Amino acid sequence: MSSVTIDHVPPSVGHDHAHEKPYGWRRWLFATNHKDIGTMYLIFSFCMLLEGGVLALLIRTELFEPGIQFFQPELFNQFTSMHGLIMIFGAIMPAFVGFANWMIPLQIGASDMAFARMNNFSFWLLPVGATLMTVSFFVPGGAQAAGWTMYAPLSLQMGPGMDFAIFAVHILGASSIMGAINIIVTILNLRAPGMTLMKMPMFCWTWLVTAYLLLAVMPVLAASVTMLLTDRHFGTTFFNAAGGGDPVLYQHVFWFFGHPEVYIMILPAFGMISEVIPVFARKKLFGYSSMVYAVCAIAILSFLVWAHHMFATGMPVTAQLFFMYATMLISIPTGVKVFNWVATMWRGSMTFETPMLFAIGFIFVFTIGGFTGLVLALAPVDIQLTDTFYVVAHFHYVLVAGSLFAMFSAAYYWLPKWSGRMYDEKLGKWHFWMTMISFNVAFFPMHFLGLAGMPRRVADYPAQFTDFNQISTIGAFWFGLSQILFMYVVLKAFSGRGEKASANPWGAEQGLEWTVPSPAPFHTFTTPPEVN
Amino acid sequence: MTPKQRRNSRCTGIILTIIVIAIMAWTFWRGYP
Lengths: 532, 33
Description:
heterodimer, A: mainly alpha, two-stranded antiparallel sheet, disordered N terminus, B: mainly alpha, about 0% strand, rod-shaped
């Protein structure tokens, strides 16, 4: 944030008796309060993280040894496909919307989100979508097994599990679109007087850009899976070559959504890291404006690179070169952000509480994921490495070490504001180190497996890949168990154990969220604060 | 939320919804063989 000081902070608890705090199940079912809805989003996404995590562990169990040990290949493919769908649409995206619901109104001085009832609806769509995905395992033929990408023509040939997945994507997509509209409108119309766009916290900026990305690409995904549905049941031939359609068209349409989707899952993480690092380095964020422009540049470039996911389908050399260079160009604004985070820490009075540890860990491991992305951007290299474990390693370094680490950082950072208690710092640090080490044990060997040619989405492999797979499986179980520690730390804080948190426990110099008491009252900023 | 904010929010929300529907329709139109 450039220079925000607060002239006047009104009493945080509103006096509007028409909106008293509701109790019991009605509080949650009919919730319109942004904090309650944010809490529900976060709980939901953590449950989905556990469900997707269990699927990941089943995958790693099967891959512990060569040969078919526990699951037939058909079921294994269902695990990999649904693991991806659940983690992306059920865990990461809703978790970021949860953080947005909790923090954006507090950071911009708004009393709530712009469309409170729509906010409720967009949350309650999620359990419906999640249920569809989960029960699809039990329909004839099982869950869809065409990968999270649901490529045609394979997806045209599958059983009813695919229809469940398509409807689930529709529902979760609709929820995302509603969430995005709500966030854009809230940020554009409900900012406190004096809070110009260029004074907004970086988390709000990154979410504003992310919400526009969501609006632009979620309808494309919705349309593409609807085309799948009509091809499957209503005689259309969008992706059926026999009827004049083109299966490769599905890949183009899907990745026109899919690549911006990657940034949808990482830009809010950038915002979180930009909030945490200045506070624990005791310095203002270095290059605030360049950070904002970098986020916008990443968002624009994300629309121009989709076909780098499809080099192996075959395309003219000119197209390969265009998509290769455009992809490499993204490293420039991303590099600006990494440089600015490091420059913020440079000569700062740094302390290493858990949020900062996760933020620094994020920079380390996300940068590794970024570099392997650059490797994969090279068309000749990608043709060798596509559909190998190298790709699996790459995107887990971006999505786990990127998105998830940033969310852990932000969760520890804002936990005192949510719960009113300081979390157990010692356990938090244990959680960080266990997560950091186990993550690398699980995913780093996958680079070697991929370079050696081990394909992904296959239940069996030649014996030469055994050692790295066993290390990876041990790391995966270790990583999974480490998250129980996180759950314990959070529950401990919410159960009222731990030191009472002050309004501004980290001594942050900026940020309206730190002007309200901890825990944040049910109603905040009923009279907007004035910001200079 | 002031009445002006409410009006602006509704307006922005409608415009964004129209954009979403237009993008979905465009994708169908481009995809039709």
